[in-house]
Amino acid sequence: MSTTVKLAIAALIGVVSIGALGSTLLNRGSVTSHIASAYAKVPNTDVPGATTSTNTYKSDQSPMATADAIAKKWKPAERRDEGSGSFLRYSDYVVGVVPGAGGSRITVDRDRDGYNRYFPYIGGFWGTGSGSGETFRGGGPGVGK
Amino acid sequence: MTRLFAALALVIAFVAVAPTHAHAVALDAVDAEELREALAQAQEVQSICYSYELSVQDSSGSESTNERGSSWAPAGARTTPTDLPTTCVRHIRLRATVVYTAESSESEDSSNYTVSVLSLPSGVPDHAAQSKIQARATAKAGSLINDPGDAVFNRMSEMPAIAAEAGLGPYLPLETRTEPLAQDAALTGSPGSDFLRTKGMTVLLLTLCILGAAGWATYIVISDRAQKRREQQRASRRKKYRKVVSDEEQTETDDASPVDADDSPKEERT
């Protein structure tokens, strides 16, 4: 293989990699923008305790399948699957996926609001706090004990 | 420098031989009771009985343990099929096994989950239901080795969701809070960057490709120049050699010519 051909191959690899890297960095996106584009937005009327920063969406799939799809696109820092739904933790948000009409309901809350909303399920696992609520279980193995 | 390498080697050796797994009791009483309460709630809604058995066999010197739990009996109680509540239509049972080998053994530690689903009251295995939950329920068996109690706790906590996902029972009703969090309640730990967590590997690989391509191109240019320099040097040496040979030939020719010139005049005198 001549020098020119080798240089051309190296240049091609470099250019393609730079293009891909640039595209990745420029189109960073976020989990909230992904959910907003992938799922239909619905009013917060059925969401008790919804705040102004709560966004609710609906999915045709089951809660666990919807949570899998979101987690595949944006890997969560933590995840809990409970009998009532799936809960995903991101850097600034908590995403809850619970059963809803026709499939599942997705709530996107700021982290503290989401921690408050789903405290019976994630309280003690993702943070601290004393329990209230019938299902609070004190945070799992070895936590706060 | 020698001392630094020696210290580093000692640290590496220490880490290599240090025990890497816990030998403590897997699930403590409080956690086992918490799990039982959660599973009991699920049983009430889904009419599915849940039970688990964790067997830890330790050949490295610590005691082996065997722990049990279920949604209908006190934590740790041994149960029999006749103990199962009549309200359950299915029984989902998880068996987790961890084997720790001795430090001197060449075998590695091992772990595995098995899940069985039985139809009630007959007790006949429900293979169709089992196949629906098998993959999910037995995933991440490797995490058993590091912390068996934690792994079983998390896996059993997820089991009602896995069963609901498979259509074996309904999801549990959602309980949410509307009042503000207590003062002592707060998220802990830093989740880190979502972007790096999701795309960090891609960015790293692309960066390595760019650096690799640049390095390869540099190597091609440098080796090409070195090759050209070597060829030039060879050509120059060949040229010098030819010149030397040519000069030597010329010298030989010049040396031969004066001998003939001397002979001619002698013949004329004679």
Low-pLDDT segments, ≥5 res of chain A: 132-138
Distance between the termini of chain B: 94 Å
With strands numbered from the N-terminus, the spatial order across the biggest sheet of chain B is: 2-1-3-4
Order of helices and strands of chain B: HHEEEEHHHEH
Overall morphology of chain A: elongated
Share of helical residues of chain B: 40-55%
Which bin fits the share of residues in helices of chain A?
A: 25-40%
Cα(first) to Cα(last) distance of chain A is: 67 Å
Structural class category of chain B: alpha+beta
Total beta strand runs of chain A:
7
Note the total helix count of chain A: 5
| Mean pLDDT over the residues of chain B | 83
Q: Would you report the number of β strands of chain B?
A: 5
How many helices of chain B? The count is: 6
Q: What is the CA-atom radius of gyration of chain A, in angstroms? A: 21 Å
Architecture overview:
The complex is a heterodimer of chains A (145) and B (270). By secondary structure, chain A is of the alpha+beta class. Chain A is 37% helix and 25% strand. Chain A has 5 helices and 7 strands, in the order ααββαββββααβ. In chain A, strands 1-2-6-5-4-3 form a 6-stranded antiparallel beta sheet. The termini of chain A are far apart. The model of chain A is unreliable at 132-138 (pLDDT under 50). By secondary structure, chain B is of the alpha+beta class. Residues 17-23 and 263-270 of chain B have low confidence and may be disordered. Chain B starts with a helix and ends with a helix. In chain B, 53% of the residues lie in helices and 15% in strands. A 4-stranded mixed beta sheet of chain B has the order 2-1-3-4. In chain B, a hairpin with a 6-residue loop joins β1 (48-58) and β2 (65-70). Chain B is elongated and about 130 Å long. Chain B contains 6 helices and 5 strands. Chain B has helices spanning 2-17, 29-46, 127-137, 143-146, 148-165, 194-269; strands at residues 48-58, 65-70, 90-100, 110-119, 186-187.
